[in-house]
Amino acid sequence: MEITGIFSAIIVGLIIGALGRLIIPGKQHLPIWLTLVLGIVAAFVGGWIATIFATAFLWVLLVQVLVAAGIVYLADGFYAKNAA
């Protein structure tokens, strides 16, 4: 991955983290900064998964958002158990 790809993944990851949080119903217990960090991770992981199967931009974006939603959902479950 080139440096421009890394920067774009970080920027897109911030947006994807917010979208992943919006997809999950109910109140989340994660702080917003952690959601954004998880979005960046999801952008890298989702981009890697999507490029294995296809390279269309919308497909990559869709996979990244779904990965972000899954990661936020799992992390929220762990965070809520530890906070209680």
From TrEMBL:
Keywords: Cell membrane, Membrane, Transmembrane, Transmembrane helix. It comes from the Bacteria. It is a multi-pass membrane protein. The chain crosses the membrane at residues 6-24, 31-50, 56-75. The keyword Transmembrane helix applies. It comes from Nocardiopsis kunsanensis. This is Transglycosylase. Belongs to the UPF0410 family. It is found in: Cell membrane. Coiled coil: none annotated. The keyword Transmembrane helix applies. GO terms for cellular component: plasma membrane.
